[in-house]
Amino acid sequence: MFQDSWARVISGEEEGVYGWITVNYVNGLLGETGQTLGALDLGGASTQITYKASVDLLSNLYNVQLGSALNEDVYTHSFLYFGSNEAGRRAKQLTVDHTSPVAPGVYSSPCFYSGSSQSFTTMQGQTVTIRGSGDYASCRALLYNLLAKDALCLTAPNGRIHTNETCSIAGVYQPPLFVSSMPQ
Description:
This protein is an alpha+beta fold.
């Protein structure tokens, strides 16, 4: 019989690692091969990035041990508010915060298809309408702000501060990817 104490909500990092294990198990890459695939899990509220790092890690290290068959250290990070639903909500809020209304309570979003329209409740509780203008370049510029690429990257090997090129998003250090050919 099931007991409530047997269940718990897993962390974002565990979610990323379980996805990594699944992707590599399905592709027959766990254990002896030495080659693995990375996993990116784009959820509604968060995104997880997990892969076998080719450098020593000071943070975001997760040891995966499956009996005697597998003992791997992987990089994993869960980016809360970077899932599809949350990023969409934040993009709408950016539209309201950084553009002038085209009419009272109506804003134009370059990320919506031209002619589309959607109701949105802002963080301040105001309900507005967002209409699409379908402008790829402007949408890309708007969404780049969500990535917080200008955030300082502090967690890096040897305790050094790294440039934004060594960070993924929101100032989170991300080790370089080990690139190899994908199995056939």
